[in-house]
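Justification of computing resources. Each target in the renewal requires a structure prediction run like the one illustrated here; the chain below, 78 residues long, is used simply to show the kind of job we budget for.
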Amino acid sequence: MENRNILNYGHSFFTAAQMELLSILNLKMSDSEVRELKVVLADFVAKLAQRKIDQLDDLGLLPSEAELQNAHYRTSYR
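Resulting structure tokens:
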């Protein structure tokens, strides 16, 4: 049985986005193309994270710079 049959069995454990990425990764790529794809994906994830952070900031759910400067988040090991 081919991987394609397993992945498209009807009730997959993967989301639609994961399935799309798996279909892209099924292409034959050189090592340099794989590295380029990793850079593109890392950039996308960084931009997505920044958008989420900006949304939290817009909602006032992030601490201010002053609060962060005076914060002590270290764990006490005493």
